Amino acid sequence: MTQAWYQVLALLFGFVSAAVAVVCVLLALRAFVGERRLYRRVRRGLPGSGAAGVLRVLSAGHKRLPAGTEIFVPYEGTLGSAHSCDVCIPYRKVHLRSAFFWMQRDGLHMVALHRDGFHVDDVPVEPGDEAVMGDGAMVTVGELKMVLRLRGVSSASAEPVSGPYVTSARRSKAQKGRGDGLGAPGKGEMRREKKLEEKKRKQAEKAQTRKGKDSDARR
Amino acid sequence: MTGKRQVYTARAKQSGEETKPRKKREPQDSPARRTRGATRRAPEEKTEETALKRAQERRAAPAARRQKREREKAGTMARERKRVLVRSGGFGVMLIALLTAVFDALGLLLCAVRTEGVLDAQALTMIAVMAPLALLTTALLPRVAPVDPLLMALTNFLCGVSVVILYTVSPDRGVRQMVFYVAGLFVMLVMALVVSRLHRWHGLTLLAMVLGIGALILPLAFGEWNYGAKNWVSLPLIGSFQPSELVKLSLLLALAYYFGAHRTVLQMMPALLFAAACLGLLMLQRDLGTALIYYLTTLALFYVACGNMPLTALGLGGGVAAAVLGYQMFAHVKVRVAMWQNPWSDALDKGYQIIQALLAIGSGGLFGVGLGQGTPEKIPAYYNDFIFAVVCEQLGIVFGICLIAVYVLLVLRGIEVSMRSRRSFDLLLGCGVMMLLGVQTFMIVAGVIKMIPLTGVTMPFMSYGGSSLISCMAMMGMMHGISGRTREEMEEEILTARA
Prior knowledge:
heterodimer, A: alpha+beta, Tumour Suppressor Smad4, 5-stranded mixed beta sheet, 3 helices, 11 strands, 38% helix
């Protein structure tokens, strides 16, 4: 091919390539937007999609979460009274970040971070302990009693499993009360809690003695 | 009346017709009349009945319509669910693959007939490799492996453009780029399978972190100074490569693992320390462009993971302070900033590169000077950092803008796919990959068009170089793995809903 012909063809190729690129971009945009819309429509049609299961409230004793309320549980996240938690239980007795959880094939793994009355099937779960919950497990946090309904998991495994994020060493540290870096209470925090409890007890005693004195005076 | 009747009967008898015996007229309240009245009703009763019927029909019609609508809706939903689970891309994606193949074939064919009287057999062989690869990887690979068809089609388009352009400006580099592309496809497939199948990342993340630090120390010990940075290593069997390109994968893994699993700042520390160590080593190598990419990716992922605005702002402030310090410490940074402000002040030496790039983009015009035309070799590093200028010169600014649009779509698609995942690890890994690629593309394109000071990083999928292309393909492999996992999760959801 002569140089002149090549130059003509090369110039033509510039136009062709620009057209090809424009068509490719438009097609890609169409495919991207179309697939996105389709996915969202399908997602909207699936009940409870994106959730590992639900926590159904059995007895609450509070207006915010009456019995029968269903709280969606995502595949991983945190449980606590803070609004930023994935499962928010807005009670005073529940800590801001009470536990964190993640879903595995054998069930929902939950690691307690605080001593706020966290029970699974009426067995207390200490800070740093990992509970594996199957479908139908009873979860008690503070004064709230809930039953876990999981999707696609039928039986519960009783043995605690060392998850990918919680090692046994950390758990034992938490049990000893040293604090494990996961938010479990350390020695200082536990001391503070004890002091607070003692203070409350003394105040209650004082109040009782005052009441007794007052009643004696009335008599 | 009786007289007339008699006359009629008499006429009938005369004509020989048999007359029916006339029935006696019953009285008004006879039982026969009463029974007949049940079948033959009065007109008022009839209208009442029809009104009732009509009311019933009217009442039944919306229910039937509703049922019909519900049936149609259920059918549409079932069809949509099936469509979502289809692994191969639609007609549009296949058309992109076909157009990519056509572009590769035409471009390389033009290269084959470029020399007068000689047909370049090498270019013809490349057509036989590139065009089928573009088609097969988009059409067949998604059916057998966890690969996203749209991402694959866009990646193929970028790689195809790179191979064609490099072959026109330097045939040897074009052939090598094609080999790197094929190797990259293999790496991408492996990464996609690993990411979609592996569930425990603790060991692998730690290993990647240790290897990453080791790889970044290598150039400091055995590297050579190149364009003001010591970031290349030459090893006996592997050849020369840039470790900082491969350490990007370690950084992404570490950030996704520690930012995803633990959410307090204390728990994010291992990843932050690793990123800080990488940044320190890159500063020692004086590879400030890559350091900037690492830093921006870490900061963006930190914000995505915890949403802590004050700490993110603090990190941003720290970055600005480090940039000022770097400007004061390193002479070549000062030169680059000065040349960004006014390249014409030293047009023949320091500002030569940027001026030539701008001239090339300008001379290309809207549709370019033609494939293989122009003078790209006048731009220093035309095959590497300045490939965007070469593309704009040969194929025009329209093509260049489309190329940027392809990058934008790639990043948007990647973020969309990662947002669908259930796990925070997958989400952060996908977002990290796309942010890294997006930041890198922005930095080099903006540097070439003199929007920001030149940073000297490669253009993802386009620049010549094995380490850059393979690392980009590995990152895309991660993205494909995440896409495969989200697809599996969707399948699971649909099956659960059906059950």
